[in-house]
Amino acid sequence: MRAIIQRVTKASVTVGEEQVSSIGRGLCVMLGISVEDTQKDLDYVVRKILNLRLFDDDNGRPWTKSVMDREFEVLCVSQFTLQCVLKGNKPDFHGAMHAELAQPFYNSLLETLRCSYKPELIKDGQFGAYMQVTIQNDGPVTIDLTSPTSPSDPKQEKNRSKGPSESGREKGAPRSKPDPNASSGADGDVSSEREP
Question: Does domain 2-150 have CATH number 3.50.80.10?
């Protein structure tokens, strides 16, 4: 899972002409769910969102307080485009979890955030909608976070233990290619592999 975490003075989500969510001081978090994400990835990202020390303390000491310490708000926005891989200049979203699976996964993440913190301080956009997100970044402070078990993090990929199918694979054996008809998790897929 990939998350872009921004410290904000305010942020809001609008769908059409209607504002569906807004926060004051806190964090705006864009979340990209991968086809390989599990509960372990979800737990890691929730823990980091709530515990990253991105705020000053009462004496103005920077990087000492988390969103929970300061009792600030969190606005989450599902953003499958964070799982993009470029093929030349064209984005490919086959690494994103399909919407039918991603929505309950995203809802579970929101519920975990609410159970771990104050539910009234956790807001979200509208899953699957075309949203206008307004962010007033504070600092600016932006953290790019990838869960350790995510294959999209090359630093972590080499440290991952091999699964049964990988450990039993002989050297030089061909790897299976990704299914070009796999879903991107979004309407209007602009994958370079998908047929119209």
Answer: yes
